[in-house]
Amino acid sequence: MSETNSAAETAAPHRYTAAMAADIEARWQDFWDAEGTYEAPNPTGDLAGNPELAAKPKKFIMDMFPYPSGAGLHVGHPLGYIATDVFARHQRMTGHNVLHTLGFDAFGLPAEQYAVQTGTHPRVSTEANIENMTAQLRRLGLGHDKRRSFATIESEYYKWTQWIFLQIFNSWYDTEGDRARPIAELVAQFESGSRPTPDGRDWSALSAAERADVLGEYRLAYASDAPVNWSPGLGTVLANEEVTADGRSERGNFPVFKAKLRQWNMRITAYADRLLNDLDGLDWPEAIKLQQRNWIGRSEGARVDFPVDGAGDITVFTTRQDTLFGATYMVLAPEHELVERIIPATWPEGTHPVWTGGHASPAEAVTAYRKLAAAKSDVERQAEAKDKTGVFTGAYATNPVSGEKVPVFIADYVLMGYGTGAIMAVPAHDARDFAFARAFELPMRCVVEPSDDRGTDPSTWDDAFASYEAKLVNSANDEISLDGLGVVDAKAKITEWLKAHGVGEGTVNFRLRDWLFSRQRYWGEPFPIVYDEDGIAHPLPESMLPLELPEVDDYSPRTFDPEDADTQPETPLSRNADWVNVTLDLGDGNGPKKYRRETNTMPNWAGSCWYELRYLDPNNDRQLVDPAIEQYWMGPREGQPTGGVDLYVGGAEHAVLHLLYARFWSKVLHDLGHISSAEPFHKLYNQGMIQAFVYRDSRGIAVPAAEVEERDGKFYYQGEKVSRVLGKMGKSLKNAVTPDEICAEYGADTLRLYEMAMGPLDVSRPWDTRAVVGQYRLLQRLWRNVVDEDTGEVTVVDTEPGEETLRALHKAIDGVGQDMAGMRFNTAIAKVTELNNHLTKAGGPLSRSVAESLVLLAAPLAPHIAEELWRRLGHTESVVHQDFPVADPAYVVDETVTCVVQVKGKVKARLEISPSIADEELEALALADPAVVAALDGAGIRKVIVRAPKLVNIVPA
């Protein structure tokens, strides 16, 4: 207890103090748990035979999954949890059946890294962290349905994560029907011949391995050899979304390199259009929608094939197919699969020395350059570097419209992650191509007429000319001419020509890449996949789920020198031979056979892709979720055409990770008929961040914020002056404040009020422990207005309040109700404070009706003290399910308002009138006012502007 609070705490025996708050809060938390106060009934069983409950509208409210950190919570963590709790409580009091609960996202890298450092099994440390966080959250009085809580590491939960993976594995995307369908339907098409195999042979003529390869090109979950983000320092590969803008791992900040490995992927790109289009129906912040749209990155253009002698075609995607006559060379990404096929044994005669990079052969040049490119991140490769690098492959392709032979290079500014990993270079009209052409002395041709005076000879230009407004020039062959056309018309004409000649067609491209789904870790969900002796992947039957993680002695992945790109992953599970090599009967009619288990694990995002569904039906061991329960809580309804959670609150940092992945899984499950909702989260709300001051000494090292002294506007730690900046709150910055500290000093209700009162929920705000006392005093005044501090007796009286108090009360009821519904909790608290202050100043005991309404208004915000006062006021039922007060409109409207009357823009009179006065009546009153009559002095009136009830503006003739 601080000195500020301790002085008078014992003066009155029944004063609201931190000690009393602790007692009240603990008692009511025990009561709520014992009574199941927050248990939300499901439509099957619970609501049957209870028409009153069944008639209530439902509200499903969710927080983003917390990760159980060993450091526990600081006061910034529960901001969103308190906000959703306040909102959920208000929704219960306004007649809703509310589902609000919280689980733990417990697989993943942090727990594993901690385990490696300490030698503690990740399950042991994670479960201890969950226990600690659960206690901290309980102390805040959060009204969660505890029956529905779980952790993703529970085998009963990840059984269904594995089951969903198998649904995705056993599905393909039917582009004609625009939905996922079971893979068995695709197999039936191949068997019947209605869909030809890639090489035209009968399905029955293909070997088992060949069939598996064919189906792998369709499956929504598939394994492939592809370029991946390899982090030697972490010993694992990462998804694109897990690599920072500067090409380092989001977790641990290690360098990330490009490598080719066989990994599991999710074909999220099949859903690109639907993921994009369905954003329109979601109630999400526009900034988040924009991030997803940009990440998906839809662009319209054309596919163009450039033939290479003896090696097939190099296919490019371009949005400027109109400039095709200006393509004078090509560039492949260093990782492109065609590179090995097109490079000749020796340099072609006459090869420019600059093109070879000083190497004796194309193979030597390509190998050396690939090694250099692998050490750069995608961001570094895309940066506008002064010097462009690359090397000639020794191969030439043919420009399909001009017939010219154009050299094919590899260069790091072309990425496999966009388009086809190959570009046609039009150096006269693209700045990067222009710089590359200058560096390698390549030809340039102007095909878009410059609008300035530079002329049409690119060799005299300082930079490329790019325009969507100019006309095409130098763009004709014997069959087609684009000269004189604008860009739009030229695009349409050349696209039609390409298709007619079988060398291209109009198409749509997406920036979105398939989701890399493998991790070389121990602490994650095992894949329910085994491989036979031919290397063919087989799904485990549902009866073998869950496939549990084995106990291992060494759960650390093999990590390497963070800078060493020439390394390969080694998974912890691969070292457990007894678990990896098994004999199983998969029920496929082949009897027991030897298999090898998949030794990668799923990424930590897997468990959070579907957890909203488990909250609905957490003990179901027969199916993913009961369809009737899912339909009730998440099914489509008016205003929510794709269904989903009614309110989802969390940070904006998950815009293109968790949120995009969860949307993909929902759509697959919806297509396959397992759920009715095509979207997981209908309304998304991003709460801001609680920040804290960071104090640093002269060395730049953070010092304990709690030990810093302020003197004359300067800050000192142990006598040394320190700097102060506003930053994140956290253990590493030594500025964390735990909720336990604040609860001990003031009580949980005070902490709840302070966090909600700090400012609008969706903006960041600085923490100031000294300001917490303001909300503590509000609760003390609230208590004092109902309970005598000396005797502990309730002081309310059974008399009717006066009109002034009724007006103050009903205005507060109206305003607080609107603010609660709009999640404007800071202004709701301000209105409760204003009412409480009015009642304090009015003096005398409160009328019972006023006191009860005051307690009900405070109940969502400060539930413990409200529950205690409600019981002391004589009620035997919990305040949690009481009706929220309803304002009487007669008292909400002011009795009179002041109307300003202007003549020629100058105020001449003020009228006290009814707020509901009609325009005609107000105009008549204004014109009859003596001051107005005098100001007009007989002049005629040209116009009277009435803005009832606040303004009348008279314009004389």
Summarize the structure in words.
The protein has 957 residues and is α+β, with helices and mostly antiparallel strands. Among the domains are: 1-35 and 747-893, Isoleucyl-tRNA Synthetase, Domain 1 (Orthogonal Bundle); 298-510, Valyl/Leucyl/Isoleucyl-tRNA synthetase, editing domain (Isoleucyl-tRNA Synthetase, domain 2, Alpha-Beta Complex); 894-956, Ubiquitin-like (UB roll). Strands 22, 23, 24, 25, 26 and 27 form a six-stranded mixed sheet that branches. Strands 2-1-20-21 form a four-stranded parallel sheet, sandwiched between helices. Strands 6-5-7-15 form a four-stranded antiparallel sheet. β3 and β4 form a beta hairpin. α23 (748-757) crosses α24, α25 packs parallel to α27 (848-858) and α27 (848-858) runs antiparallel to α28. The longest helix has 19 residues, at 803-821. It is globular. The mean pLDDT is 93.
SSE inventory with pairings:
Layout: H1 3-6, H2 18-35, H3 51-54, E1 58-63, H4 79-93, E2 97-100, H5 109-118, H6 122-139, H7 155-169, E3 171-174, E4 179-182, H8 183-192, H9 208-216, E5 221-231, E6 236-238, E7 257-266, H10 272-277, H11 286-296, E8 298-308, E9 312-318, E10 329-332, H12 339-342, H13 353-356, H14 362-374, H15 378-382, E11 391-398, E12 405-410, E13 422-425, H16 431-440, H17 487-500, E14 504-510, E15 515-516, E16 529-531, E17 537-539, H18 577-580, E18 581-584, E19 593-597, H19 611-616, H20 627-634, E20 647-650, H21 658-671, E21 684-686, E22 690-696, E23 702-703, E24 709-711, E25 714-717, E26 720-727, H22 739-745, H23 748-757, E27 765-766, H24 773-784, H25 803-821, H26 825-842, H27 848-858, H28 863-872, H29 889-892, E28 897-903, E29 906-913, H30 919-928, H31 930-936, E30 941-947, E31 951-956
Parallel strand pairs: 1-2, 1-20, 10-12, 20-21, 22-27, 28-31
Antiparallel strand pairs: 3-4, 5-6, 5-7, 7-15, 8-9, 8-14, 10-13, 11-12, 16-17, 16-19, 18-19, 22-23, 22-26, 24-25, 25-26, 28-29, 30-31
